[in-house]
Amino acid sequence: MNAVRTSHYPNCPRWMELCDExxxxxxxxxxxxxxxxxxxxxxxxxxxxxxxxxxxxxxMDRIQALYERDKNxxxxxxxxxxxxxxxxxxPKKMYRYLKNVDDTRFVHFECHGDPEEQSLSDVQxxxxxxxxxxxxxxxxxxxxxxxxxxxxxxAMGNSCGSTDEYTTLWDxxxxxxxxxxxxxxxxSILTKDDQGREYLAYGGAFGDEPNxxxxxxxxxxxxxxxxxxxxxxxxxxxxxxDFCAVDPVRGQVEIKNKYLFTDLADFxxxxxxxxxxxxxxxxxxxxxxxxxxxxxxxxxxxxxxxxEFYLNLELRTKEKTLWCPAGFAVAKEQFVIDAFAxxxxxxxxxxxxxxxxxxxxxxxxxxxxxxRERNQLVxxxxxxxxxxxxxxxxxxxxxxxxxxxxxxxxxxxxCWRDAxxxxxxYNNTKWxxxxxxxxxxxxxxxxxxxxxxxxxxxxxxxxxxxxxxxGMEVDMQFFPNDTLPEIPEVGLLFELPxxxxxxxxxxxxxxxxxxxRCNATQIGLYNTTVTDLYTDYLKPQECGNRTxxxxxxxxxxxxxxxxxxxxxxxxxxxHWLPKxxxxxxHGKDLPPVTKTVVRCIARQQGVGGYDSWGAHCNEKYKNxxxxxxxxxxxxxx
Length: 637
Prior knowledge:
It is built from 10 helices and 33 strands. The protein is mainly beta. Strands 22, 23, 24, 25, 26, 27, 28, 29, 30, 31, 32 and 33 form a 12-stranded antiparallel beta sheet that branches. Strands 17-18-19-20-21 form a 5-stranded antiparallel beta sheet, with no helix packed on it.
């Protein structure tokens, strides 16, 4: 990140010194915010400062004090008169003052919608404009000013989806000058509950009324300065070097230097060809490339294998700097070659199975493995050890994110909350075994299980199990009714015993990622734990997702649960059900760990991030109900 807006008041002098030292551009904002009075018609509560003479002296004192304090700070490239205060004679006088005393810096003022806005700001400033609005401005050039998003990609909770839609436009249109993420760090207070447990608290935790709840939790960092997964997405999208594939098999890549002043000779480029089997070859090359230039780099490589592999690139610092150690990666890229090649093999059918269809349940057994169906899959025993702690079932819900709450998804999409559960509550799924077949001389059993999802109107689903002595293939299809609203998630859910803690997976990582927030990820083989997959957002919500998963293995104390996707799926593993997370207001109050919840996901909706008070995620990241969803994977024993 190269710029900071000190919203909505001047920051401490030490911060300005640091920005001078580290070369950070600063929009230095005056302490003026009167959002609550905008266009007010309430008697006794007029819009301020507007043209009201009683406010002129206070406003002029503030803008003059800001200028005099920071006029010699080289980091200040722009003065900002304030935030969400609209115009009038007093703001005009503030603007004229700044232009008279300083003709070297431009003036910013967020007063979108004021008829005299052009006379108050040298840039067209708007907050939370959608990408299409930004592009419309760039194409029409309604006025000659640059366009600046003084706030965008509202980083509240699990957010910052679709940020790449903005950065793509910034590269395309010179008049679009960028934006400022709202905001840097959660405003939360480290405190203790009545049991002495420390936690990060927010509005309402102190008996304070009224309060704004956790709406102060908008940061790329947590309140204790731990980094959130959102940060890495912004870091990747803001990198100053672009890599474009020419012929990635041969190692031919176009590199573009987007630095303004830095030649890429200051860095070294590390490359490697790798797969889930490890690194085949790697090396370091020098790249000399002037600012603004691009060229094709030829690493003179060849194909190292006949399956999926990756060309990973990292541009690293050669020497230690003020802000990073030597070897720090300032830009990264990955090219996936022969995606999904040979990652899925048919299950071996090498031993006969015994099928027992009695007493309302269907049991399929080999010498070491037993599976039991009671209209739905309820038991898998391997070596006498039970793997399932609850029946496999559809899952259509995720713990509401802050952005979901902003769109009223809890009520708007509430028909899906319990729809995957078995009978006994309001919405549920009714399962039936439609038929089964014994094939390959008794070595393979195919079970077709049908489902009626009791939404209004109803939806249909089907799961086909192909069972051998080595494992089980699960082929799910879901047929939603197209009159219903979008679906937060479409997938299958398993509950395993809680000792399934260690996870290895081949997929997008290492941080949590979603279909609209995955630019910072790379496909790789990652080792982690279920505990570490949980992201401790200020208000517990959906977290820990992984996209692009090819295969995964969970390891318990005595058991292994392996999943192989055909060809790919999303995976979410947690110690809590989505509704348990959603119903908890602070992470410290989550239920005791009694299970490991595995969600094999055909598709989860994007997390969004245009704003957190009504904006939906991009339409292309919604799970619309006018299509069929399919998920196919193996469970291997």
